[in-house]
Write a structure and sequence with these properties.
The protein has 171 residues and is mainly alpha-helical. The protein has one domain (2-142): Methane Monooxygenase Hydroxylase, Chain G, domain 1, CATH 1.20.58. Helix content is 75%, strand content 4%. It has 4 helices and 2 strands. A two-stranded antiparallel ribbon has the order 1-2. Helix 1 runs antiparallel to helix 2 and helix 3 runs antiparallel to helix 4 (96-142). The chain starts with a helix and ends in an 11-residue tail after the last strand. The relative contact order is 0.10. The model has no long low-confidence stretch (mean pLDDT 86).
Length: 171
């Protein structure tokens, strides 16, 4: 009876993992879309993307809660702590048919997570480069009219000269 319950919980866990895989794949495409929208400077579409992400986060949170509940139940069945219930541990404890399914899900998740890490790093680099470029652009615009002279105080420290020559400019 316990073996049947464990197999049912494993099936539920595999369903949760399928939803996790879908979630990661969706986030991979969102990262690509995010980079594209940043390059295009499409603020309206970026806002819609943010709303979409916020809406999906609630359903993913429910999947996370369900997965943790299944892990807790499996930990009770195996008489161990929840931290010991991993896919590798389940692989070792299951018959070969279920073992292969768990192994395949684990492998697919690992590959997707590695790909997600790379895409996430690319997105971070793009955003930081855009930020750096914007700072340089703003600095060059506002430093355009500076006289460049340096004043020294009586104690020998420098003081920035506040006189600037502003010109009305259109971009």
């Amino acid at each position: 009876m316990v073996a049947i319950e464990i197999e049912n919980k494993i099936d539920e866990m595999l369903e949760c993992l399928d939803r996790d895989i879908e979630h990661i794949q969706k986030n991979l495409s969102r990262l690509n879309e995010l980079r594209s929208l940043i390059i295009k400077r499409d603020d309206a579409a970026l806002g819609k993307l943010l709303e979409c992400i916020q809406g999906d986060s609630e359903s993913y949170k429910n999947n996370e809660i369900k997965r943790q509940a299944i892990r807790k139940e499996l930990a009770d069945y195996f008489a161990c702590g929840i931290e010991h219930i991993t896919l590798t541990m389940l692989e070792n404890e299951l018959p070969e048919v279920k073992n292969n399914r768990v192994y395949n899900k684990k492998t697919e998740l690992k590959l997707l997570i590695e790909k997600f890490k790379k895409e996430y790093a690319s997105t971070i680099i793009l955003v930081s480069e855009c930020s750096r470029f914007n700072k340089l652009l703003i600095k060059s615009i506002f430093d355009l009219g500076k006289t460049g002279s340096v004043l020294y105080k009586a104690n020998g420290t420098t003081k920035e000269h506040n006189e600037t020559a502003f010109v009305n400019m259109q971009l």
